[in-house]
Specification:
It is a single chain. The chain has 639 residues and is of the alpha+beta class. It is built from 28 helices and 11 strands. 54% of the residues lie in helices and 9% in strands. The strands form 3 sheets. Strands 8-7-9-10-11 form a 5-stranded antiparallel beta sheet. Helix 2 runs antiparallel to helix 13 and helix 19 packs antiparallel against helix 20. The longest helix is centred in the C-terminal third of the chain and has 32 residues. It is found in: Endomembrane system. GO terms for molecular function: protein-disulfide reductase activity.
Amino acid sequence: MRTTLTGLARAYIRAGLEKQVPATGLGIFRILFGLVVLQEIFFLIYFRHFIYDPIPFLDQASPVVHLYLGFWAMAAGCITFGYHTRIAAVANYLFWVTFVGFTAMWQDFDGGFDQFMIGSSLFLIFLPVNRALSLDALRDKLKFSRPGHGYTPPTEVSVLAYYLPLAVLMGFLYFDAAIHKLSAPFWLNGMGSWLPPTMPYYMSPLDMSWLLNQHSAESIIGYTLIVFQFAFLPLFWFKRARAPLLLIGLSFHTGIVLSLNIYPFGFGMLVHYALLVPFAWWRSIHAFLAFKNPVLTVFYDQECPLCQRTVIIINHFDILDAVDFKGLQEHARHYPALDAIPEQTLLTDIYALDRNNRLYAGVDTYIGILLAMRSTAPFGAVLGLPGILQLARLFYRRVADNRSRTGCTDLCLPALSGANDPPPVSQTQARIAGRLSRLMIVACLLQINSTLHFGLFYRLNDGHASSEAGQIVEAASNAILLLSHSFTGITPHALYMHDHFQGYNHILGITYIDEQGAERWLPFVNEEGRIVTPNWGRIQSMWANVAVTRHIDLKRLEKGLMRVTAFWGTETGLNLEKTRFKLKVKEIRVPMDWEYDLRHYNLQQPWTDLGAVTWKNGSMRLDIPDSALAQQLGIAAPK
């Protein structure tokens, strides 16, 4: 029988489907991914006028944009908590594609990780990320449990739920990025991790000179990074390779967060390493953190439907095994503190005993539970505050005294029937394997097209097709790239290459003259030349990758200056019509090989006045006198 690529892929995938592993890593990944999305949405909300207004504050974008950002934040929150996860994942994916592809973020505000997040969001729709640490799992427990028979949702998943996103999202990205690095002189010199933190527009406030000034250490880091990126895809499948890859990858991306001002990219990559953590580590972490013996033993009415639901809910959130539940009817007589309470009184409250045999009842029991579970301790402390405690006791008493112990109410656990049985597995392993194998082959072909097009042919031909046939192939490849870039996140990863840094020897800053005639820096680029917080991520990208580059385009510079002065001028409380802004320039060094203490050298270079920015009748004007420096930068005023 002929062996085909699809057949091999199907066989491997079927084997992966049969191997079941804990879903803990997926749950951790979902939570961290949701938090990264949330922080990016909050960033977009803060800079909504900067990014989406045609002229910040003066010509405002539709308020619908702000409303959609709110809906997107709700979807990200649902992903974080695992509530209606599938629907939230679909909404999150659509929001990423819409905002990145159909707003100003498409061209001027590339966050550096948008396509990566689009690909992750697409995967999130299909991954069983709600099987651990989710409210969806709690909903299933409540829905499919019945008195005396608790339902436990599946807590294991196919190992492919970890392997496939690692291969496509990280393995393909690393391999593609490594191919590009082979054509970059400073990467081949081992200085790939050294150069960006020495360039003021890219460095973080944290002075890493103690490491940057170690030539040998930077060479080791630079070459190790290239080897790591080539090795990740073929090696992460093997059990013994995962821990080393995990530790090296975490070190590299933590270094990005600490040394550069593109922290969203660093955090976006870091959260995916939850998928690479060896499965045994999650068990060991839980065994280390969990209580060996319960902190609190809680006694509840076994015949009370509301009590049974309460037990299910608390057990779901008690991930450290701090609380042990026992039925009053069955166990009360074994505890003297409870046996002394009359039966009629006993069944009117929920009781608890701590390790010191102290007895708690009612609201005090719930406060003890919240404190014992550690993660909910702040809620327990708030519940015990004067005033709140008294209100909680009144509410508790009303519910406890009016609950139905045996009759069914809206709070009852549903009786199981064919209509609400747990959903069965509807597809065979073979059918799933066939579909996944074809999808993987398509993903591989899309990545090969992207890597060959930009990583090889584009650079060999210097960006131009060598023949008519080459032009046709290039056009077809570009069309495929547009689709894969926009909707799957598969895109070239030629980040921080020589053709961006080489010749990038001047940077610009903006000051203004205040009412007292003093010159002050806008809260954007400071006197050292660093882009200051919170202007990081995609705002930094707009300025350092679009408005100011090694070959400055005057129209793009004017557009960037318009946004910066209108936004930060208004935020600073300036009257744009009466304020004169100065455009400053200073020379820096961006060599392709190591130089000692380059970070401090670039920060200490002096500024020179280059031009002026003024506003009149809602329009900005840039005046740059014709000078040798302006001509060198290519932004001299037209004659």
